[in-house]
Design goal:
Layout: E1 2-4, E2 9-11, E3 16-17, H1 25-33, E4 38-42, E5 46-49, E6 52-60, E7 72-82, E8 86-94, E9 101-103, E10 106-116, E11 124-134, E12 141-144, E13 147-151, E14 153-154, H2 173-178, E15 181-186, H3 194-197, H4 202-210, E16 215-222, H5 233-252, E17 258-265, H6 270-278, H7 284-294, H8 300-308, H9 313-320, E18 326-332, H10 340-351, H11 362-369, H12 375-389, H13 392-407, H14 412-432, H15 436-449, H16 452-465, H17 469-485, H18 489-496, H19 503-515, H20 519-532, H21 537-549, H22 553-566, H23 569-576, H24 587-592
Parallel strand pairs: 5-14, 16-17
Antiparallel strand pairs: 1-2, 3-12, 4-6, 5-6, 6-10, 7-8, 7-11, 9-10, 11-12, 11-13, 15-18, 16-18
Protein name: TPR repeat-containing protein
TPR repeats: 436-469, 503-536
Pfam families: TPR_11 (PF13414)
């Protein structure tokens, strides 16, 4: 057996096992020659990264093995055998004409393989077996002995910290009934036409136009970004929505309600931009740089030019300017309220299908759902709210219910079906209320579902919606975790520069630097994480891995022991982890196992 330490690969001779009694001499000769074939697996051990295990297998045959053997073919089957003898056939290397190249005059195939990751596969073996086949008589075959070419999975890349923590719309039913309803509309740069850019939010305005109330006071506030052309875009945006609402009331309202509509604009100046910058996820140093520029004594053009040259401008252009191109519609009117006791009883009857869903309004249904801890009841209540009102909070909260049900479900297919329903409802909530919070929930649901490309796209969209700093930090941290799962470590580090300085950020920065083999940088961030969350077992375990890679036995002993003291499950993990395979016989490892 040859072991290439540099490439972490195995070169293995394969012994011959004859399984067909009448196999001809040529088949025997091919299989005998296969003893000198070389199999190289990269990486080795295999590495679990996100939802997949991807590796490259290179097979090189002896120089004369395929020469003058036109009536015979040879292939190598690849199998992964997980603990408990669960086997997956991953494919084969087929040495047919046109499928292989010559390296140093020897037939060679290099091929990528992949299989889905699951925790039970951590302990397993990658196996290969060669087969020589007589093309004239397919039942005449000969097999090599099945050989192990890699053992177990390295799961270090999965040690990122994720949150995906989104919950129900905050309960503000009582105050909401007395206060205004607010609906946001966003516009493309330099545009104000409603028909092109408002999409699924317009039906929500239609519902307010149809509401049967005595009076409505509508206020439309327009805004524009500092980099947009002209000074009247904000007013044009407000006027476009006001005109739209007037036309819908004239067409859809049969109650004869009195409607008062006014328009106004928010200021578009450097102070407004600076306020949004200070609430953004930009690092403190970049916020200070922008403040120095915008509060300086130069002309507006000089400030604009300096801003474009700043380190933060790409973030400002991508994530802040879009949030300033909006018009907000505020609808102010009162509604009657029932007591909590009455609401709960009616909600129970709706859940039991002994009362019609329309005995409660959407806001009443959603408020009543907060009064029951049972997910099945909540689901029925939010489903009723969706059917009767078609408003975004009902869709959003129904999506949250399905997510919570999915988190409690251990069956893979059932869990995926629940997440599909969560995504469906969160999508509808996003159409009606395109905010950072709603789209963060949608991105998280896609993330939990394993649809990584879609999740990444919506995380980015959520950031562009803008929001409070704490929310933006959460979005950036989970976006970075996803980028790490996808192997996009440079992009993850970039996202983490906007995610604050909390435990999750430092843990994921530590892992990013660890996987990029910057061990000193990884150590610094893991130690920062421990300052924020003392005695965290995952941080100690990660530092033990750093020590193992740096061949620092003292570091392995100290941090592995502390991890096990806090969480005994890390003892079994360390025994099975390829990161510590070289330490199993050493004193430092034995001492670490002592609690």
């Amino acid at each position: 057996m040859k072991h290439n330490k540099k490439n972490a690969a195995l070169f293995l001779p394969l012994a011959v096992v004859m399984l067909t009694a009448n196999t001809g001499c040529t088949l025997q000769r091919m299989v005998k020659q296969a003893q000198k074939q070389e199999i190289e697996v990269t990486p080795n051990p295999l590495v679990a990264n996100g939802e997949e295990v991807v590796f490259e297998l290179k097979a090189t045959l002896p120089e004369k093995m395929l020469k003058n053997n036109q009536d015979y073919r040879y292939k190598i089957d690849v199998v992964y055998e997980a603990a408990g003898q669960q086997r997956e056939h991953l494919g084969a290397l087929n040495f047919d004409i046109g499928n292989y190249l010559y390296e140093n005059r020897r037939p060679t195939i290099t091929q990528e393989f992949a299989f889905p990751y699951a925790p039970h596969k951590n302990k397993g073996r990658l196996l290969v077996q060669g087969t020589a086949i007589d093309k004239r008589k397919r039942d005449r075959v000969a097999y090599t002995r099945e050989e192990q070419v890699a053992t177990g999975l390295n799961t270090t890349a999965l040690l990122m910290v994720r949150s995906n923590d989104y919950t129900y719309v905050p309960d503000n039913y009582k105050t909401m009934a007395e206060g205004p309803a607010s609906i946001m509309f966003y516009f493309d740069e330099n545009q104000f036409a409603t028909k092109n850019y408002l999409g699924e939010n317009l039906p929500l305005l239609d519902q307010y136009a149809m509401d049967t109330v005595k009076q409505q006071t509508i206020k439309v506030i327009g805004s524009q970004a500092p980099n947009e052309k002209g000074t009247d875009l904000a007013q044009k945006r407000a006027k476009a929505l006001a005109d739209y609402y007037r036309s819908k009331v004239s067409l859809l309202d049969y109650s004869g309600k009195k409607v008062e509509i006014s328009t106004e604009t928010e200021p578009t100046d450097w102070a407004t931009l600076l306020e949004r910058v200070n609430k953004s996820a930009l690092p403190k140093a970049q916020k200070q740089e922008i403040a120095t520029i915008l509060q300086g004594t130069g002309s507006d053009k000089q400030k604009a030019d300096a801003l474009q040259q700043s380190a933060a401008f790409d973030y400002v252009r991508k994530y802040i300017y879009p949030t300033m191109r909006f018009a907000r519609v505020e609808v102010d009117y009162n509604r009657a309220r029932k007591s909590d006791y009455e609401l709960y009883l009616l909600a129970r009857r709706i859940a039991d299908e002994s009362a019609s869903a329309d005995v409660l309004t959407a806001d009443e249904l959603q408020y009543a759902a907060t009064l029951t801890p049972l997910l099945a009841e909540r689901r029925k209540l939010y489903e009723a709210a969706v059917k009767t009102t078609d408003k975004w909070p009902a869709y959003y909260n129904l999506g949250v219910v399905y997510t919570e049900m999915a988190r409690k479900e251990y069956r893979t297919k059932a869990r995926e079906a629940l997440l599909d329903k969560a995504i469906h409802n969160l999508n509808f909530a996003g159409f009606r209320n395109p905010t950072a919070e709603v789209n963060y929930a949608l991105a998280s649901a896609y993330h939990l579902r394993g649809e990584r490309e879609k999740a990444l796209q919506i995380y980015d969209y959520a950031i562009k919606m803008g929001g409070e700093q704490e929310l933006l930090h959460r979005i950036f941290t989970d976006k970075a975790a996803l980028e790490m799962e996808m192997g996009l470590y440079d992009e993850a580090i970039r996202s983490l520069t906007y995610s604050g300085d909390d435990y999750q950020t430092n843990m994921n920065l530590g892992l990013s630097y660890l996987l990029k083999e910057n061990y000193e940088g990884a150590r610094d961030y893991y130690e920062k994480a421990l300052e924020l969350k003392q005695d965290d077992p995952l941080a100690h375990y990660s530092l033990a891995i750093v020590g193992a890679r740096q061949q620092n036995e003292g570091m392995v002993r100290i941090h592995l022991r502390r991890a096990i003291q806090k969480d005994r499950s890390y003892m079994e993990r360390a025994f099975d982890d390829p990161e510590f395979a070289a330490y199993h016989g050493k004193q430092a490892f034995r001492e670490a196992m002592i609690r």
